[in-house]
Amino acid sequence: MISLSDIRAARARIAGKIVPTQVIRSATLTERVGWPVHLKLEHRQTTGSFKLRGASNAIASLSGEEKARGVVAASTGNHGRALAYAAKLEGMRAVICMSRLVPANKVEEIRRLGADIRIVGSSQDDAQAEVDRLVALEGLVMVPPFDHPAVIAGQGTLGLEIVEAVPEVATVLVQLSGGGLASGIAAAVKSMKPAARIIGVSMERGAAMKASLDTGRPVQVEEMPTLADSLGGGIGLDNRWTFAMCRDLLNDVVLLSEDEIAAGIAHAYRHEREIVEGAGAVGIAALLAGKVKVDGPVVLVLSGRNIDMDRHLDVICENRERAT
Ligand SMILES: *Cc1c(COP(=O)(O)O)cnc(C)c1O
């Protein structure tokens, strides 16, 4: 397991490479649930998501020889963008493999950062097969999006910032896909506040970690298009880190419909005046849907903002009347 000291070491390693993001109190959500609700504004992180924390820590942990070989990753978009950004700062080569499900705006941003792009197949598994091929063929160093100690420790730095900003936190709502974010935050928060509850939030359409936790081992689920595109993809049948950490550290996992996720995006825009992508909005959505029992101060993470802006406009317009 990743420990608090791993996470503190990651924080020192990535200081100056990421921005420590603000935590603000949401008046409307506080009124709605009857306890203080705080938003961790991580969608304002450089590259538009928390993924820069893990990617920066992973790159900073490479040897000079590994840096010279370059890095490769499969991604639903945000990890690729973060890795491409961090690699560019170091003058390193980065190859990012993505499926056709990754939105065009995300692919374009990665291209702009100068990374090599491979679009393969229609799932994260297909993209990962291309990564494995490139590792074998070209000797690139793989930096996985979640199942990697340096990545988990990097994402865990968010947990340190959460407890520092809201020491009285009782419940943390965290996005759950491959589980790097949830494992890192849970390891940090529970080391400092063992009584705090950590709740994972996924979409109903293809929640691989939830299915795996229910089964007791990593299982494959069909990947489907969803508004929360950053939460798509499996956890890897050979998962080494995040499955066990999520099993041991998460108190519960809740799932959301596409309509509930849309309502979360609309609420973030209308009431918090924040533009977030579907994955970024699931914490808000879970509270609005009444799917989380609240019995103390809540912190929820806005994890990313890299939504196609025309799609965002559509969601806002379609949810005009419903946004409450
Ligand atoms: C990657 C991502 C997640 C999920 O993180 P995991 O570590 O895969 O669970 C959530 N939100 C956004 C915006 C992401 O990019």
From TrEMBL:
Pfam families: PALP
Cofactor(s), by name: pyridoxal 5'-phosphate
Lyase keyword on record: yes
Protein family (similarity comment): Belongs to the serine/threonine dehydratase family.
UniProt keyword list: Lyase, Pyridoxal phosphate
CDD domains given in the database record: Thr-dehyd
GO biological process: isoleucine biosynthetic process; L-serine catabolic process; L-threonine catabolic process
GO molecular function: L-serine ammonia-lyase activity; pyridoxal phosphate binding; threonine deaminase activity
Tryptophan synthase beta chain-like PALP domain segment(s): 17-304
Gene3D superfamilies assigned to the protein according to its UniProt record, in alphabetical order: 3.40.50.1100
Highest taxon above the source species: Bacteria
Species, as recorded: Pseudaminobacter salicylatoxidans
Listed name of the protein: Threonine dehydratase
InterPro entries for the chain: Ectoine_EutB, Ser/Thr_Dehydratase, Ser/Thr_deHydtase_PyrdxlP-BS, TrpB-like_PALP, TrpB-like_PALP_sf
